[in-house]
Amino acid sequence: MYEKILVVASKKDKAGMNIISHLTQIGHNNICLVEEDMVYTENLDLDILNSADFVIFASKHVSESGKKTLSVHAPGNWRSADFGGVRGKVCKTSALFMKQIFERLNNNAKEFNLNNYKVALEVTHHGPLIDKPCLFIEIGSSENEWSDRKAGFVIAKTIVETIENLEENPYNEVAIAIGGPHYCPNFNSIQLKSNVAISHIIPQYAFPLTEDMVEEAIKKTDEGVDMILLSWKGLGNAERRDEVMKILDKFNIQKRKTGEISKV
Description:
- The protein is of the alpha/beta class.
- It contains 8 helices and 10 strands.
- It has 2 domains: 161 residues, AF0625-like (Aminopeptidase); 88 residues, Rossmann fold, CATH 3.40.50.10700.
């Protein structure tokens, strides 16, 4: 599926270096360290990144709540580009990779009793903007968690196991997702408990939704998109939902609400 998968971290990022230290102990050496914050494309060696088939950014997660989190998301910007990247542009990503790494992260967090951490998908946000399929996997949300050795080990184990076992799955339906909040609980459960694999997520706070945003999400998904998945209540009031559906009706792709997806 992807032959050369590169893990990138910043030397200034405590969580990233925590993860990298465990990766090297496990024996994964396809690693690139950068001097500065890696959400800014100009800080990256694009020649090294371009030699890879897929890039995993290992990073800290910051939130005002300070909650303990292990999270996965695709990079990109639907609106402003305050933290790297380009306004209105997102990176390529893989719905199958996103699904498989998220499943393993959940399983490993349970196995190693990281019960006080919330394992979550995040919506597509922040930079960098690169021309390679990629994703972020993060430890949050404060200095204590960034340096948590068990959390670093769990993420490193998740990365290595996903790379070693990554496979095409013809039974997965590939989706982009629209609506809901930043940590998108409805999409989390679908990514874990259904045959749907989600790539880019456009949250309600990025609305008003535009045709360009939907096109960008579809175009930057490595697999063919089978479905547009909707957090129906997370689209806003009836008027806002009507606006969203008028835009989505321009795309010849099935639209399904999260409540319509079968879960096991």
